[in-house]
Amino acid sequence: MENILVTGGLGYIGSHTVVELIENGYQPVIIDNLSNTKIDVLERIERITGKKTPFYREDVRNIEKLQQIMTEHDINGVIHFAAYKAVGESVEEPLKYYDNNIGGLITLVSAMEKKGIRSIVFSSSCTVYGEPDVSPVNENSPIKKASSPYGNTKQIGEEILSDCPFLNTIALRYFNPIGAHPSGLIGELPLGVPNNLVPFITQTAIGLRSELTVFGDDYNTKDGTCIRDYIHVVDLAKAHVKAVDYIKQHPDKQFDVFNIGTGNGFTVLEIIKTFEEVNQVKLNYTIGNRRAGDVEKVWANTDKAKNVLEWEAHLTLEDMVRTSWYWQKSLATQP
Ligand code: UD1
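A: This is the predicted complex of the input protein with uridine-diphosphate-N-acetylglucosamine.
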């Protein structure tokens, strides 16, 4: 049995990945400081998988505790999700982001080095490409100067890991994860007003927000709204299992990076229209100003993940908006 430490394992992507790890024969061990999720997620993971998962309410910056957990559970590898991710907040409070996202990574990798653990999968982001000159972007597309401290922590994180020869690292550059587990038991749990498009859509549809604002319709795209590569979180979770498998099979490879998207770009208005059609709900929205720092269009070339990791996305945009809505409705009926 391979024991995988999953930092941030009760978060949105982390929780879905824990489920996939268990379903593929791995034993995850979760640490999460619950800064952006709730403890109930643990019990929900157990309901889906029928298995109890060891959990520690801990911060990745606590090196003593990390080492203790690594020893106690005989950890063979790490998937590192624990990080802050709100672009706007990172501009307001940059040190909070550098401390958690970079400080946490350094502490984690130091603990791994001390314990002789080499395998790590790192949550990176398509944000490293900035506003690309052409899409789809592949892994050799230029890395642009980060437009926010959040984006910079992902760039620096990749650099730190690629500078550590005692590691076998895979960095996954996520595009836009949306959707939820088909059980309706886990999904995204934004605390406060959501920054991201789909949680804002579902909260508006259910009446928690009065209206959605589309941030600009004067971009150089087919309908004037921005284009992103939306990927179902369950497909994304499976990519982590493939990455862990790959590292096991290629212990001599020090560092590699993969785009994790579908390869398709959709506009904001296409997401809204698909959400309305698939779920048969009317969404109250208006067109507003552009949001500062938004990229006009970006979508992935996913050939490398397909050829090397033997991973590709299978779920459709319809699956994504249907499960997002199912999750929002099941949240509303929770005690
Ligand atoms: C960004 C980053 C991504 C990062 C993520 C973390 C880029 C290309 N992507 O995602 O790497 O991991 O933040 O949160 O930099 N929109 C609206 N109305 C809303 C909310 C969003 O119109 O109320 C639009 C945005 O303008 C954008 C699209 O929806 O065009 C997607 O936005 P969002 O879900 O916030 O994700 P990104 O900004 O693409």
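The mean pLDDT is 97. The domain at 3-179+230-261 is CATH 3.40.50.720 (Rossmann fold).
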